[in-house]
Each structure stands twice: as C-alpha cells, then as structure tokens.
User: Fold these one by one.
Assistant:
Number 1:
Amino acid sequence: MSLLTAIRDRDVAQLPSRRDEDWRWTDLRGLIRMLPPPSSAIEGDVGEGVFDELVQHKVVVANGRGEAVVDVPAGETSWVALRFVSRSDGAHAARATISVGAGATLHLFETYEGEGGYVTQTTLSFALGEGAAVERIVLAGDSPNGVSVSEAAVSLAPRADFAQTIVTSGGRRQRIETRVAHPGGHASLRLDGVYLLADKAHADLTTVVTHDGLDGITEQLTKGVVRDQARGVFQGRIVVAEGADRTDAKMGHHALILSDKAEVDAKPELEIYADDVACAHGNTVGALDEDALFYARQRGMNDAEAHALLTEAFVGQVIDRIDQDEARDVVRAWAAERLRP
Amino acid sequence: MLSVKNLHATVGGKEILKGLTLEVPAGQVHAIMGPNGAGKSTLSYVLTGRDGYEVTEGSATLDGEDLLALAPDERAARGVFLSFQYPLEIPGVPALTFIRTALNAQRRARGEAEITAPEFLKLARAKSADLKIDFDMLKRALNVGFSGGEKKRMEILQMAMLSPRFLILDETDSGLDIDALRIVADGVNALRSPDRAMLVITHYQRLLDYITPDAVHVLAGGRIVASGGPELAHELEASGYERYEKAAA
C-alpha cells in the first residue's frame, strides 16, 4: 500500500487511506478518485533555484525524470542543490540516492517546486558513513493543487551527524516523511520542521527514529502556523530499542492556529524499551498571545504587521537552528514570504 | 491636547471608569495617583484602545480628534505612547527589529518615508547611550530574560525612538532601584516639550520627585475626585488615599 505502487499500477485501491493508522490524517484514498495518466516531460528550462548561488552542483529532477545520485567520497565536502520540479496534471515518481562517505560533509539544499494538479511520490535514501555530516534543508513549495509524498530513509553510522530542517507551505495533500535508523555510537540527529499553511493547504510532517545502539542523540523541534481552513499534521515517533542505553532524545512540537477553521493534528510518541535514557517531549497548540499583539499594535504596527512579526518570530526559533548563515537567510526569506498575508 | 469627558468604561461587563473627566494641555505633565483598583490601568488601556475595554459613554480626544474611533496602531501613529506597567517579552524578535518595525509602521501610516538602516542604527546607538543601555542588549529578543529595571528602560528607549506626542507612563517606577529611576526620569524629562504632554500614572509619590508634574489628580472609584498642584502628591504620601476612597464610595 503506497502512493508509489498506486502510481505505477494506476490503481487507487493501493493508496494509503484513513484506515492505515500512520495515514489517518493524510487520507489519499478518500481524496483521489482516479489516478491521472503519467506526466509528460517538462518542455524548456525549469529556471533558477533559490539555492543556486550557494552550491557547486545542481541536480534537477523534472516530472520524475532522471535518477538523482549524490555521492560524496570519504573526507570530501560537497554543496548540492537538489530540485524536484513538478509541472503537470499527471502522475510521476522521483528517486534520489545520497551517499556520504566516512568523514565527508554534504550540504544538501532540496526543493519541491510545483505547478498544476499533479500526483507525485519522491523516494530518497541517505547513507552516511562513520563520522559523516549532512545538513539537509528542504523547502517544499508544492502547488496548492498538487498531491505530493516525499519519503526519506536515512541510515546513520557511528559518530555521524545528520541535521535536517524542513520548511513547507503544504499542498492539496502533502506528506514529508523521514525515517532514521540510528545506530547510537555518539551519532547525532536533528530533525526540525516548520509548516506555514494558508487557504486549504495540508501538510504532514512525519518522522520515525529508531535508536538501536548506545549513546545516540536525537533533537527534534517542529513548529507550525495554520490559518484559514488549512490543516497541519505532525507525527513524531522515537523508538529506543532494548539495550540502546544512554540515548538522549528530545522532541518538541508547537503550533499556532490563527483561524477557527484551521486544524492541527499532532501525535508525538516515545516508545522506550531501554532503561537508562533521557527522553523528553513537549507539545502545545494555541493562538497568538493577545497581550503581545496589543503591545505590538500600541507601538504602531497594524494587525497584519503584528501577526506577521510574531508568527515569524515563532517559527524563527526553528530556522535559527540552521548552521549555515547564507542558507539560513534564504530559508528565513522564503518563510517570511509565506507568512505575510 | 488630551481631553477626556465623562468617560465610562467597562471591563468584562463591570464598570471601572465612572465618568472620568480630565484635560491635559500641550506642554504639561499631569500625574494620576490613586489606590489599587481605582481604574488607573484601565484608563491607560482605554486611551490606547485595548480589546476588552469597552467605552459606554463619554469622549476622549487628542487635539480635537476622536481617539476612541481609532485602532490602537492608528492612535500610535498619531503619537500616543503607553509605557506598560508590565512590558511584554517577545521571544524571537530582537529589540532592534521590533522598534524598527514599529517606527516604520508609524511612518508609513503618517505618509512619511521609512527610516534607512544606517539612520536607524545611529539613532538607536545615541538613544541607548543616553539611557545607559548596552547596545548589544538591543540585539537580544525584546525583554526576554531582562530584569524589571531593564524592561522599564527598554520602554523609555522605545519612547525616545518613536518620539510620541502624548505619553502615558503606567507605574513606570515599579521595579526600579534609585539609580535606574534617575536614568528613566532623565529620559522622560528629556522628552518634555511645549508640543508634548504626559500622563504619569503612579501609586507612589516617589517618581514625582524626579518628574515634576504640573498637576496631580486623584483617581478613586473610577473618577477624578481631587486635583491640585505637585503638593497634592506629598499630601497623599503623608495621609494616604483612604478619605478619597470613602468619598468615591
């Protein structure tokens, strides 16, 4: 049961539905009556990407065409922009394989850029060698009419460092899922996310981390702002297997709901089978602080400006965790554009 | 400048202001003193347009313009500034960003050009030096982790940078030690001018030793029950509010 096989076989019966526990808030079966025909190739140039200036290598996967392979040899450093561009009303699937050798560093700037009523699945696999470091930044700008599922499987080696920040404005239905096999061994994982949703947008940020060894670190902070009739979904699961002692895992999810018809569904889960662990999670959903809004307005900001300033500040606390200065500025600007009403 | 006539206001359906009348001419500083629960903070919120403070009767005008018809930001753009009794903490927004956003919002509302970044920084450096605020503090999230005294100084800094025409200081002396009080008072006094007016709301007379008012009013039971010169503040300090509370009841 997956969007991938449903697209391949043009068979809606294979779509995940609300009966699947992991998909109950992102029902595809109830949404898609008929899978569209395969997308044709994009004609002409796809234009420039927002991260083009920062990178050495640019990889474009347009309407699912071309398999993206990123391979960073041991000890080297690479800057790569990976763009998944969808311009169609058809269906397509894309794939990317990323391997980062021992002690190597990859700065990966991944974007989803969509126009039209497409249905797409993107499948990524990351393999990190011992002591490898990856900073993965994802800007998901799917079309409001697009249906998009991105699934990344990440495999870490001891002392590897994987830091991820996803910022999304959602789609008609959109899910961005990250599954991490965490071996412990002082490997360090950061999984951050921001969803900024308006109109009828839907975004689902799902993560599953499995700690399988001693001394693993996971830090997770997701924040969302939803307005109009938008819906945000956060599902975060951290599993600490038996024997994965001295695991240090923190998970936070905080959302602002700015209209009566907007919705946030959150399911933070910690499953702990080891004895000696430090795990914590926090989850809050609320409105903007009325006192802070009045304070900003008393100083001269109108209602829209005050809202924008305070919501930018709210999600800015996630964006601030991006290591790389230039990339952080690009992400901040991208987010600010989507927060201004 | 400010003219308040027979102002009645309710909060959560309860009448707090019960026919308050007050004139503060341009160039003057008036103090409002009163016991707890007299309606001092309500007056400051009604004048600045906070939600939940409903005016049921009366008027408040600034230079003849109806304040009560304006949104809080429109009042701010016309020069009304409230120094909050409890300044808000704004996580994630550096003080400089907050003040620049506010200043430019006011300028746009008045049809003026926005301040340029170099001009703004120059102004911020000068004003923070006057108030003995470490400039690096302005790069931190506004008021987050600041002491009570630092927050009050940050209010006066905003006031100095926004250059309002009508200033309301709500219990600005609370939480200040004597040195901080002097710095704050100097900052406030520097803003005294013939085309500005101030309303200094305070429970204690102490602040008025540093900011000398032209007139003192006693607010009790939602009305001004007595008015006089600066000597009235000393008299209140000596004898308390009891007789005014009885008179208002």
Note: Residues 95-109 of chain B form the longest helix (15 residues).
Number 2:
Amino acid sequence: MSLYSSQKFLYQLNRDPQLQARFRESRAAAIDDYDLTSEEREAFLAGDVGKLYVLGVNGQLLMHFAPLLGMPWAEYLEAMREGVRRHGPVRAGIYAMTTSTDEKVAGV
Amino acid sequence: MSLVFAGVCSHAPGITGRAHLAEPTLRDSFHAEFRAMGDALAASRPDALVVIAAEHFANFFMNNMPAYAMGMADRYEGPIEDPAWLGIARTQIPGNAALSLRLVRSVMQDVDVAYAEEWKFDHGIMVPLSFLTPRFDLPVVPVNINCQGPPLTPLHRAWAFGAALRRACDEVGERVALVGTGGISHWPATPDSGKVNEAWDRTFLGHWASNDREAMLSYSDEATYREAGQGGFEIRTFIAAASAARGPGRVHFYAPIPIFSVGCTVATMQVA
C-alpha cells in the first residue's frame, strides 16, 4: 500500500480538523491506522516534507501539510529541494522535479 | 432557459494566497481583468454558475475517483484549505440541488457523471469565485474533471462532457453561466513552481480561442506532461468549456506571474 497510504493519510488530514488536532497532539497516534512503511512513518513523525516529496507524494496533497507544520511557501519549496539533495530524484508519481536544486524559478 | 455566459480562468492558490509577493502592476492588471470577467458574468443575469474545475483531492481520492462529478446540494463550503494560506475566509456558498438534479439527469444521457451531495470547495473554485462573485451570492453547481490522479479521462471525453453539459443547460429554465478553471502549463506545488511554458500556453490559447476542436484534442498526456507539466492536464476544463460554448473565444489577459505558479489567464467565449 505504502505510497497510496501516505497519500490517503494526507488526503484525510487535509479534510478533517479532528485528525489535524490529533496530529498536533500526537503524530504517532494520528498515523497509527495507516499502513505505512517505516520510511514513510519516520518522515511523518519528523515532518520531513522533503522525504515525502521524494517518495512520490502528490504535491497537491503535500503542499497543505506545510502550513499545518507552520512552514511558509519558500520553506516548503526549499524543503523539497533539500529532499532531492539528500535522497535523490523523486521515485514515483507525477510531481517530479525538472529544475535543479539551486534554481529558484519564482525567486523563492 | 439556456447557457448565457462562458469563459475560462486560472485558479492557482497563489493568485490570492501569495498576492502580496507579486509584482504589483502586473498583479493589479490581472486582478482587474479577473474582476471585469465577473462584471461581464453579472451582466448576463445568470441564475446559477456552473464551475468546471479540476480539484486537488479535496473531495475525491484514488479510493473511488470519478472521471466526472457534479455537485448536487443547496449549500457548499470553502475553502477546504487553511484560509490564511489561501487568503480567502471560510464561507458558505449557495447551491441549487434541484437545478443540479436536472442538469445531472441530462448529462447522464451521454456521460456517466458521478454526483455528490457534499462538496468542499478548494482553490480550484474558491479563487475564481473570489473575483467573479466576491459576495459568494450566486448559486454554484460545482463540476469536477479528474486531472490529478491518473489514469485521466481522454480529451475527447472532456469534449463530449462539455457538449452534454451544454445540452443540459439549454434544457433547463434557468439562465446558466459556465466557467472552466485551471491550467494552462504549470508545475505547481513542486520546486519548479513558477515555471511556465509561455509559447505552449499561447499556442493552446490560440486553439481555444478559435474553438479548434481537432487541435485541442490532438494533445497527448505524455507530451503535455513533458512540455506543460502535470498542471497542463487541466486543459480538460478549458476543452469542456469550449465544447459547451461552441463560439469563438477572446483572451482578455494572459501573462506568466511566477509567484502565482501559472500563466495567468482570463478569457471569455461567445455562446453560439
């Protein structure tokens, strides 16, 4: 299930204020019901946007995780670049990066 | 009565959420054209507004993904996103379940559309409404074409869906306006955010404005992904709007605004 489960968690998190509150209270408890790999689980526990991006999470789901973590737009973009620097290219999905890690297309 | 207004526009969340970061002159020109489209929409005296959007996992997910869906409620709410992030306060938007029911029944004669009696609007609908009907007082019929979770509906089916919507609008007693929202080329929500293929956009908009069905349906998803990014898949909403309107179109505004992550577009089309 893995990537599907990661994305399903974010889909439900983005929709459900109660799950958001649960996540703020205990990240481990919030993700407990989802069939995640240890790599995905660690990324959610750490709030590691860059790792989730590399694992292939759809950007339209991931970009709402950033404000939940208190991360402004510029930091969100940089977190994805840092993910690619550390873990290599995006492994799945349709949100692969086509610019270089030192490029800032919109200046941020 | 019939379809009384048609157009297309951008819906990127940065248009409202990151407005303060944009170059002011270009931003203000774009926002002014967006509001002028709202004036033209109001002048057509619509009873309801059909918004063909490409949503982003607000209501539909890969556990049960419809290619086409229409809302069928008397009330909706939005935005589903963090209101501070989007720059639009959470509000209720009127619907018209009875009208939706008649439209859905008619569309079903040709296209197996899903219906939804609950629907949370995301930026795909809320950003356009914030300019077109800023008091959120015109009843909306939300429509979604899946442009996010492949496999995606073929472009010729988006055309057929637009044609079915047109017939449905012409069958009902109400005056119906229709707006498609999305694309064109963009790489949203990625580190590439801000990248736009302006030449690709202008070519596509040319096909759209001349309502050249054959040219619009000639795009392949492989080429679109390569040249226009995953955001380019949203040309489906423009194609459906063109099929519904049938007339020539006019582009009132087009300019890439990188911090908005898209080639910002405002265009209307004659209902023919």
Note: The interface with chain A takes residues 14, 17-18, 21, 56-58, 61-63, 80-82, 84-85, 120, 148-150, 187-195, 225, 229-230, 258-259, 261 of chain B (CB under 8 Å).
